[in-house]
Amino acid sequence: MRAIVRTGASATSSHDGAAQAGPGTEISMEMREVPAPRPGPDEAVVEVVAVSLNFGSLAYGELARPGTVLGADGVGLLRHDPSGRLPTQTRVAFTSPHGTWAERSVVPCDSLAEVPPAVSDTDAAALPGAGLTALQAVDTLEAALDGLAGRSVLVTGAAGGVGGYAVQLAKRAGAAVTAVARSVERQEHARRLGADRAVGSVEAAEDAGAAGTAEAGTSGVGFDGVIDTVGGEALAAACRVVAPSALILNVGHASGQASLIDVEAMRRRAPGARIDAFVCTDVSGRALSRLLAMVAADELEANVGRTRPWGEYRQAVRELLGRRSVGKTVLTVSSPSPAAE
User: Which tens digits make up the pLDDT trace of 312-341?
Assistant: First the structure.
């Protein structure tokens, strides 16, 4: 069975000797023959059709050990399901901790979601990792703020995978969304996804947010919620532009920079505001089915920016870590499944 695995150390190493890649780092990987995966008692086997690239897992997570099969999500045809919940040959989207950039992947049964006929393989492959993170982040904001209707939400890295979904889902929940994206092209992309305003920095977002809330007849004292995918100075700046009792969710670290936050200044300016080092914990098939249903109903765009055959994985990874891609990148592993043609 062919798979794409990490083969060596990257530019920096952690304290235990495991390599850790940062943004823009050249990654050592190759496509090679590996043993077929052996499922556990609660695991299914999927013949993989397409997979997606996720910045966070590539830059910091999956590259810890040489020999690791890369990838965390995808779409394919179900070949074995011990739970009996879905018949074989069902087209499924999934996440997996065992690696997915392979011709076959072992997947926890409860992480499988049947793909509706109206959703293409490419769109289904793009959704799981980034989409589930954005969905849980928006759900968390909605619960903490007693609904997002009429609330102001700031999204950083808004043209990326998680950010693009967060813009759409927050807007769908009724929020006024301000998107932060570096280039004019990325800002236009965020607007197309539904952002009310798109700017190039958090500082500019403060002015745009105040103007927007003034137009709406509200106070404009700061953002009620933040979904930050960048970290570093973007997170620190976001802490300076929030309203009292705001919730800031740091869901990513794309900048690779440390955040220097003046907590006392935030306490004085926005009493009750809080920061959450957010981690997506719900990777269930049930949650993924929510996203797939939205795509099938044309209520959510899959945000696919580029599709490549998986033989071009090196170029795709370089583009992602070098910030040269917009939206999600999908690699096609095999021919489209019959239901998607």
Answer: 999 999 888 888 888 999 999 976 655 554
Q: Round to whole Å and give the CA distance between 189 and 168.
A: 12
pTM attached to this predicted model? 0.90
- How far apart (Å, rounded) are the C-alpha atoms in residues 108 and 126? 19
37, 105 Cβ separation under 8 angstroms: yes
Alpha carbon distance, N-terminus to C-terminus of the chain: 25
pLDDT tens per residue, range 173-195: 999 999 999 999 999 999 999 99
Chain-centre distance of CA 29, in angstroms?
Answer: 22
Domain that holds residue 196: 130-277
> Which CATH number does the domain housing residue 165 bear?
3.40.50.720
Contact of 37 with 106, CB cutoff 8 Å: yes
| Bridge partner list, 30 | 5
Q: What is the CATH number of the domain that holds 39?
A: 3.90.180.10
